[in-house]
Write a structure and sequence with these properties.
The protein is of the alpha+beta class and about 140 residues long. Helices cover about 40% and strands about 35% of the residues. The chain contains 4 helices and 4 strands, in the order E-H-E-E-H-E-H-H. Strand 2 and strand 3 form a beta hairpin. The C terminus is likely disordered.
Length: about 140
């Protein structure tokens, strides 16, 4: 069967639990069409680059799909009808990625980076740039 990666955006005013229910609903549509969803990820609420249907933020989710085209078309048809889904995209791929997606890896990396800063500085945040650099104004030195 063909393999697909499917990402959809849901309105920001629905809850995370409702998004999980939507994922389960669309997964059920795929399974009813003799397909499977080997991986599903909820990426959380993200800011959008531009407004989509008057929304500045959206819940984002990924589904890896192994299903016939008819099952994917039925899922997309139901997404078009839903008022909560503001955008979606399905891409046919040669092979599905194993392990966490790039978005999940980025989130893990960001969380670890924040933990390291808190451990080093004793608080969140920290210095930007090189910690060993002298505290001088390079602009004044270059103008002389």
């Amino acid at each position: 069967m063909p393999l697909y990666e499917h990402v959809f955006l849901a309105r920001q005013d629905v809850t995370a639990q409702q998004v999980e229910e939507m994922i389960a609903q669309y997964k059920g549509v795929i399974e009813a069409g003799n397909g499977s969803v080997p991986k599903q990820e909820y990426w959380g609420v993200k800011s959008l680059t531009y407004r989509i249907r008057k929304n500045r933020k959206a819940h984002m989710a990924l589904l890896n799909i192994d299903a016939p085209a008819a099952a994917v078309q039925e899922m997309e048809r139901q997404m078009r009808i839903s008022e909560d889904v503001i955008r979606f995209m399905t891409v046919k791929v040669e092979a599905l990625e194993e392990g966490p997606s790039a978005m999940m890896q980025k989130r893990d990396r960001d969380e670890r980076r924040g933990d390291r800063r808190r451990d080093r500085d004793g608080e969140e945040g920290g210095n930007f740039g090189d910690d060993n650099a002298p505290a001088s104004d390079n602009a004044n030195e270059e103008s002389n």
